[in-house]
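Please decode residue identities from the backbone states below.
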């Protein structure tokens, strides 16, 4: 079992517990998070290391099926703010127009927010909209936080 070992297989541990004890799987994830300040980062690294075989998706799907609350916690731990290459020249948007006040999603193979040389990637326009002067009085503009779900192949 885990017992705080830095080299343990987090997903395998949670999957093992989730198969027979779904409630305990959620408790296990909560305890691991409380015990290890780097838990989320280590989970992300393990998912990235498994991404070549796509095994991470199968394990996460099994955990979500057996113990949805534990799976949801793992997904939440895999949400990160994207790396921003040029925060002054090309920052993440902090306000955006949200159609029907719903979250915007885009499935991209990118974890870095950058324009690069030339025009920005076309999918950025879904998030980076030009707002009129005084956007706080413009009702469809809302405060937003951009997050990236670090699960390759999803």
């Amino acid at each position: 079992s885990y017992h705080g070992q830095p080299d343990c297989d987090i997903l395998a541990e949670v999957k093992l517990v989730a198969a027979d004890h779904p409630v305990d799987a959620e408790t296990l994830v909560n305890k691991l998070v409380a015990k290890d300040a780097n838990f989320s980062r280590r989970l992300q690294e393990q998912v990235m290391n498994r991404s070549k075989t796509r095994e991470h998706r199968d394990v996460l799907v099994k955990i979500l099926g057996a113990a949805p609350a534990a799976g949801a916690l793992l997904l939440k731990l895999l949400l990160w703010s994207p790396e921003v290459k040029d925060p002054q020249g090309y920052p993440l948007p902090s306000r955006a127009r949200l159609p029907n006040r719903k979250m915007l999603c885009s499935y991209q193979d990118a974890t870095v927010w950058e324009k690069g040389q030339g025009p920005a990637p076309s999918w950025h326009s879904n998030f980076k909209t030009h707002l009129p002067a005084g956007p706080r009085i413009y009702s469809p503009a809302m405060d937003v936080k951009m997050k990236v779900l670090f699960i390759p192949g999803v």
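Observation: Residues 22-35 form the longest helix (14 residues).
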